[in-house]
TrEMBL record:
SUPFAM superfamilies: Thioredoxin-like. InterPro entries: AhpC/TSA, Thioredoxin-like_sf, Thioredoxin_domain, Thioredoxin_ResA/DsbE_sf. GO terms for molecular function: peroxidase activity. Residues 240-378 form the Thioredoxin domain. Its main location: other. One of its GO terms (cellular component) is cell envelope. Residues 1-19 form the signal peptide. Keywords: Cytochrome c-type biogenesis, Disulfide bond, Oxidoreductase, Peroxidase, Redox-active center, Signal. It is found in: Cell envelope. One of its GO terms (biological process) is cytochrome complex assembly. This is Glutathione peroxidase. It comes from the Bacteria.
């Protein structure tokens, strides 16, 4: 089955046989990997790799062990593909003490089999593959439409007309498999294909020995992440609601001097949460500069740089010639991102002259400029 690649990483141990406890044995034959792969074990909680290295591939064949303390995603990406920023490799649910056999083509489709867990996983894989293929094709089509210049709103509307039906189809397939195989540990692994409360419903279908066994560490990460996001969204609705007192903060400006939000009271202020890494943020700058000049003196923009180094932040401000105020939201500073429960980038929050939230816009939304026209054309 064709899988989405997440990142990089592992250490080769040229051995054969059944995997020892605390290790996952990975072997197989796959075209398109090149002469080596970067292998990595992902820790979703820490959002980094707990283990990574490079292993050789000989004649399209590989055979190595990965140390694992618990069930976790393991990624294997062709080193040459990684250097060229293209996808070629595979991702597996890594289970300590098991052996996985992978075969296929690194840039297209591959199959997973092996010891008992992976035999079960193969059964599930075959069932969900057609639906995941439809979802991937929809995503590919949406990207193609964007590339052709179709408006973001039109592409979003097209996606919204297709995606819910496909997601329902995927859920029905997964729940059908879990109901038929509640004692399969592979049923628990399917949680990564679900969204929201559907993940919790899947876990309820599992036999107690599976639900409370070694797969618990794996599926709990996805459910805990969903619950945290849900809580964050609920908080965002409260702190970003119109009429709410805008949380005050003090961050250093581009000259290294402290700037307090409340010091700007008396005029409208647009809090622009952005980063130099954010493509949509950068694309929006020309229009923002146009409106900043159009209503000069009637409002202020406070750019809040997020998830950047100070060097990249300052370089981006200079490169794009952004004339408004700027502050840096680094890890050591007061976290305005948490204060406002920011859900995506760019996010523009308009604060009125009295220091209350007037309106919030997530994404590069034309409605933001329509709103400014409504405020200042009076």
């Amino acid at each position: 089955m064709k899988k989405l690649l997440l990142g990089v990483v592992l250490l080769a141990v040229a051995q054969t046989g059944i995997a020892a406890d605390g290790k996952l044995h990975i072997k197989g034959k796959m075209t398109g990997l090149g002469d080596s792969v970067v292998v990595g074990v992902i820790d979703y909680v820490a959002q980094n790799y707990v283990y990574r290295d490079t292993v050789p591939v000989k004649g399209c064949e590989f055979d190595f062990y990965v140390p694992l303390k618990k069930v976790a995603p393991v990624q294997c990406i062709g080193l040459s593909a990684l250097r060229e920023n293209r996808q070629a490799g595979f991702t597996v649910v890594g289970v300590p003490g098991e052996e996985v056999v992978v075969s296929g083509e690194a840039t297209d489709r591959y199959d997973i089999n092996g010891s008992r867990f992976y035999q079960q996983y193969h059964e599930a894989d075959v069932l969900v593959e057609p639906v995941l293929k439809e979802i991937n094709e929809l995503m590919t089509e949406c990207r193609a439409r964007m590339k052709k210049g179709v408006s973001r709103d039109s592409v979003a509307a097209y996606y919204d007309s297709k995606a819910p039906g496909l997601q329902t189809k995927l859920e029905q397939t997964i729940f059908g498999f879990a109901k038929a195989h509640p004692t399969y540990e592979a049923s628990a692994a399917l949680v990564s294909h679900l969204e929201g409360e559907q993940m919790q419903k899947l876990v309820e279908l599992l036999a107690p020995e599976v639900r409370d066994g070694r797969m618990k560490d794996y599926y709990s990460v996805f459910i805990d992440s969903y619950l945290a996001q849900k809580e964050s969204k609920e908080r965002a609705q409260k702190v970003q609601a119109a009429g709410t007192e805008a949380p005050d903060f003090t961050l250093n400006d581009i000259a290294g001097k402290p700037l307090k939000l409340s010091s700007l009271r008396g005029k409208y202020v647009v809090l622009d949460f952005w980063g130099s890494w954010c493509g949509w943020c950068i694309k929006g700058f020309p229009k923002m500069k146009e409106y900043y000049a159009k209503y000069k003196g009637k409002f202020q923009i406070l750019g809040i740089d997020c998830n950047d180094s100070q060097e990249r932040w300052k370089d981006a401000v200079k490169k794009h010639q952004l004339p408004w105020l700027h502050v840096y939201n680094g890890k050591a500073e007061a976290d305005a991102v948490k204060l406002y429960a920011i859900q995506g980038y760019p996010t523009k929050i308009i604060v009125d002259p009295q220091g209350k939230v007037a309106k919030t816009f997530v994404g590069e939304d034309p409605a933001f400029y329509t709103y400014l026209d409504g405020l200042f054309k009076k």
